[in-house]
Design goal:
Strand order of the largest sheet of chain A: 5-2-1-9-20
Oligomer: heterodimer
Strand order of the largest sheet of chain B: 1-2-4-3
CATH topology of the largest domain in chain A: FAD/NAD(P)-binding domain
Order of helices and strands of chain B: EHEHEE
Largest sheet of chain B: 4 strands, mixed
Distance between the termini of chain B: 21 Å
CATH superfamily of chain B: TusA-like domain
Shape of chain A: globular
Structural class of chain A: alpha/beta
Strand content of chain B: 25-35%
Number of strands of chain A: 23
CATH class of the largest domain in chain A: Alpha Beta
Radius of gyration of chain A: 21 Å
CATH architecture of chain B: 2-Layer Sandwich
Number of helices of chain B: 2
CATH superfamily of the largest domain in chain A: FAD/NAD(P)-binding domain
Number of domains of chain B: 1
Helix content of chain B: 25-40%
Number of domains of chain A: 2
CATH architecture of the largest domain in chain A: 3-Layer(bba) Sandwich
Strand content of chain A: 25-35%
Structural class of chain B: alpha+beta
Largest sheet of chain A: 5 strands, parallel
CATH class of chain B: Alpha Beta
Shape of chain B: globular
Largest interface: A-B, 15 and 17 residues
Number of helices of chain A: 10
């Protein structure tokens, strides 16, 4: 029996499990291969939904479905937390079991975690839309926010969904205009480096739009501390910014599991950027946000990486030499308001081209969000 | 012996794409005392302009940028 273990039930882990169930259906039916998906959360969560929650366009319940409804019946699903990865013995320890699981090939797809407490005052002083509770609190705050200074601050880089920080001020600008409140609200956007985004073409695009829509851009803005009582953000560079409503992209971190297993010092798994194989251990891959590759932490990356790793694992399970490689393909939609959007597509080392935003692209994005559940099932 | 022969802290950001090296540097500098000499190793050409700009903005001193065979060493002193 060739045992394939996947840890993590987000986009990467779920797509991979379903792809493998399909590619290796004969081997699974013959009892020669097992595909096991281990996830601590019985729900699969589609995080891009949270961007729409503060504007009342989606609810947090729209973002989740029971994972057992999404996973192919040929996948062995284990709802449990992996507490230890032993890459010398090829074994996993689980929280609720006294026995451990042996694997022949392991994929870590454990994602990224929010760490607002890494910056003093941030958890108390700032809102965010990167999780269900944060998105709901921001919805309530925004509903009552009629005047003052709204600051969107990108505190942590890298972070999930690199487009979302740019999208939020453009959406909130439009949303406030629709409600006749825009002239009483000042909007600022801050970014840590000397432009509005890590990707130069996105930075140029956003800078022009911000200027057009009277959104103030602050660059070289690295948050050192937030004073929630005084409602002031202080930076490493020595500047201060007063706010009435602070929306922050919190610092992200990888996983202690990765650090403890010796697979990456900072919680992201060190991998070969093309094969996605861990550099510190045999028979281990990483996909999605937890993999340290030089592109964005985006769902599309997890999706494309899952396809590559499915091919590589299936080849090895059949005793063949794997040939599939990941070229860094990344696709992101970007909302430019409440009813228009654009999208970008790029590979490693490539600068994306940002198309003119349009209503059809906005509706395409919303359509994709609905059809995402087919993606998770491995059908798209 | 000059500062650049024996930096107090070396940050290896080779192979990280922009803005990775600058963010690695900013994250580390926050934890260092004034007078600390840092070597940032980067393979990203943009770092050779982005990093000096940030140092000026944040009030730290650029000491030297040295081009190696396949990467740059950017030396700075924390203020």
């Amino acid at each position: 029996m060739h045992r394939i273990a996947i840890v993590g039930g987000g986009t990467g882990g779920t797509v991979l499990a379903n792809r493998l169930a399909s590619e290796l259906q004969t081997e699974i039916a013959d009892g020669n291969v097992e595909v096991r998906l281990i996830t601590a959360d019985p729900n699969h969560v589609y995080k891009p939904t949270f961007l729409y929650v503060p504007f009342g366009k989606k609810t947090v319940d729209d973002a989740k479905r029971p994972i057992e409804e999404l996973v192919d019946r040929r996948v062995t699903l284990t709802i449990d937390e992996v507490t230890d990865v032993d890459t010398d013995q090829n074994r996993l320890s689980l929280a609720d079991r006294t026995t451990s699981l042996r694997y022949d090939q392991l994929v870590l797809a454990t994602g990224a975690n929010l760490e607002p407490e890494a910056v003093p005052g941030l958890a108390e002083g700032a809102h965010h839309f990167y999780g269900p509770d944060g998105a709901e609190r921001l919805r309530d705050e925004l509903a009552d926010f009629t005047e003052g200074h709204l600051v969107l601050s990108v505190v942590g880089v890298p972070h999930m969904c690199p487009a979302a920080p740019v999208e939020f001020p453009l959406m909130v600008d439009d949303w406030l205009r629709e409600r006749g409140r825009r002239e009483d609200v000042e909007i600022s956007y801050t970014y840590p480096i000397n432009r509005a985004h890590g990707l130069e073409s996105v930075a140029d695009w956003a800078t022009d739009l911000f200027e057009e829509r009277d959104i103030t851009l602050e660059t070289f803005f690295n948050v050192d501390e937030v004073d929630p009582d005084a409602e002031v953000v202080e930076t490493v560079e020595g500047t201060e910014l007063e706010y009435d409503l602070l929306v922050a992209i919190p610092p992200h971190r990888g996983s202690d599991l990765v650090i403890d297993a010796g697979l990456g010092e900072d919680g992201w798994v060190d991998v070969d950027r093309h094969t996605l194989e861990a550099t510190a251990a045999e028979d281990v891959y990483a996909i999605g946000d937890v993999a340290d590759v030089p592109t964005s932490k985006a769902g599309s990356v997890a999706h494309y990486e899952a396809g590559v790793v499915a091919d590589r694992i299936a080849s090895r399970a059949r005793g063949q030499t794997p040939t599939a490689i990941y070229d860094g393909k990344t696709v992101c939609f970007l909302e430019a308001g409440m009813d228009e959007a654009t999208f970008i597509e790029f590979t490693y080392g490539e600068e994306p081209y940002v198309r003119e935003p349009s209503k059809p692209l906005h509706w395409t994005k919303l359509g994709y969000n609905e059809s995402y559940w087919l993606t998770a099932r491995g059908l798209l | 012996m000059t500062d650049t022969d024996d930096p107090d802290v070396t940050i290896d950001s080779k192979d990280a794409s922009c803005p990775g090296p600058l963010m690695d540097l900013i994250g580390k500098v926050k934890t260092l005392d004034a007078g600390t000499v840092v070597e940032l190793q980067t393979t990203e050409r943009n770092s050779t302009t982005d990093v000096p700009e940030w140092l000026e903005e944040a009030g730290h001193d650029l000491v030297e940028i040295e081009e190696r065979d396949d990467y740059w060493s950017i030396y700075l002193e924390v203020n």
